[in-house]
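Design job #97: recover the sequence.
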C-alpha cells in the first residue's frame, strides 16, 4: 500500500497564510502532538520505508514518525509543496479579495495560476503519480509512507477518482491524516481518506 500522510498542524495553518515553499514555518505544539499520535496509529501497518517532502513542516512530521517506528526517512522532491508564486505569504482573505477563489481556479487550470508563477495542478499530478509508480515498483508488496502536503495528496485522489474541480476544492485533507491507495491489477484504488486516531477528529 501507498500511505500518504499530510503534515501535522503548522503555523501557517493556524494563521491562514499561503506558505507554499517558504522556509521557517514550523509545526505548532498541537502539530507535534498530532505527529506523535499518528505515529502510534501507524504502528500496526508495518511501514517499511518513509519518504518525505523537503519542506520543514512535512519533514519534521516525518522525523517524529520515523523515530517512533525506528525507521530512516528519505527526502524526495516529488512530494514537495506546490510553488505558490506571487501568492506566497499572502493571507487567504487577502488573496480571495484580490483574485477570487484561487484554490478553485487552481483545480480548474485557470490561466491565472501560471500567470502568477504557481505550479499547475497537472504538474503536481504528474510528479506525484511518478513517485507512486516508482514506489510501487521498488517496494512491491510493502507498505510505504509518503509524508507530504494537501495538494499532492489531492493530486493522487484526482488521478484515482477523477472528481470535478468543485469537488476537489470542497475536499479537505486534515492535518496528520492518512490517505491510502492500493494498486490492484495495474489500477490504483482509494482504500482510506482522512484516517486518523478517533480523538483527532474532534480537532479536525
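Job complete. Output follows.
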Amino acid at each position: 500500500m501507498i500511505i500518504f500522510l499530510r503534515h501535522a498542524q503548522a503555523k501557517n495553518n493556524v494563521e491562514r497564510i499561503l506558505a507554499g515553499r517558504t522556509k521557517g514555518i514550523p509545526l505548532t505544539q498541537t502539530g507535534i502532538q498530532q505527529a506523535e499520535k499518528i505515529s502510534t496509529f501507524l504502528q500496526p501497518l508495518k511501514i517499511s520505508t518513509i519518504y518525505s517532502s523537503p519542506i520543514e513542516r512535512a519533514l519534521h512530521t516525518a522525523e517524529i514518525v520515523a523515530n517512533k517506528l525506528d525507521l530512516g526517512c528519505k527526502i524526495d522532491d516529488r512530494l514537495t509543496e506546490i510553488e505558490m508564486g506571487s501568492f506566497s505569504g499572502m493571507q487567504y482573505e487577502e488573496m480571495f479579495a484580490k483574485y477570487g477563489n484561487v484554490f478553485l481556479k487552481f483545480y480548474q487550470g485557470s490561466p491565472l495560476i501560471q500567470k502568477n508563477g504557481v505550479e499547475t495542478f497537472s504538474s503536481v499530478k504528474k510528479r506525484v503519480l511518478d513517485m507512486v509508480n516508482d514506489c510501487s515498483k521498488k517496494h512491491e508488496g510493502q507498505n510505504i509512507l509518503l509524508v507530504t502536503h494537501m495538494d499532492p495528496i489531492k493530486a493522487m485522489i484526482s488521478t484515482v477518482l477523477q472528481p470535478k474541480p468543485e469537488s476537489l476544492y470542497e475536499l479537505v485533507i486534515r492535518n496528520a491524516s492518512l490517505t491510502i491507495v492500493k494498486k490492484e491489477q495495474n489500477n490504483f484504488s482509494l482504500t482510506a481518506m482522512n484516517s486518523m486516531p478517533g480523538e483527532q477528529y474532534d480537532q479536525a
